[in-house]
Automatic annotation (TrEMBL):
KW DNA-binding (keyword) present: no
One function term, GO molecular function aspect: lysozyme activity
Pfam families on file: Phage_lysozyme
Entry's family note: Belongs to the glycosyl hydrolase 24 family.
Hydrolase in keyword set: yes
Gene Ontology biological-process annotations: cell wall macromolecule catabolic process; defense response to bacterium; killing of cells of another organism; peptidoglycan catabolic process
EC number(s) given by UniProt: 3.2.1.17
UniProt organism field: Acinetobacter bouvetii
Name under which the protein is recorded: Lysozyme
Record key words, sorted: Antimicrobial, Bacteriolytic enzyme, Glycosidase, Hydrolase
Gene3D superfamilies in the cross-refs: 1.10.530.40
InterPro entries recorded: Glyco_hydro_24 (IPR002196), Lysozyme-like_dom_sf (IPR023346), Lysozyme_dom_sf (IPR023347)
Catalysed transformations (reactions): Hydrolysis of (1->4)-beta-linkages between N-acetylmuramic acid and N-acetyl-D-glucosamine residues in a peptidoglycan and between N-acetyl-D-glucosamine residues in chitodextrins
């Protein structure tokens, strides 16, 4: 089960339920939280300079 842009677990660790709903601002916050580990992984592995668009594409 997923909500918003694909969130399956809320930032507080609780799993998404079938009846859950969210606002657009919540969806954006959940996505930011979900992407953070991937963003950090890319920043730790890529050793050449890159811009925000390139980071976004790699994440």
């Amino acid at each position: 089960m997923a909500i918003c842009f694909g969130t399956i677990v809320y930032p507080n660790g609780i799993k998404v339920k079938k009846v859950d709903i969210c606002t657009e601002s919540q969806a954006k916050a959940y996505m930011s939280y979900d992407l953070k580990p991937f963003e950090l992984a890319v920043k730790n592995v890529v050793t050449v300079p890159f811009n925000q668009n390139q980071l976004d594409a790699l994440v």
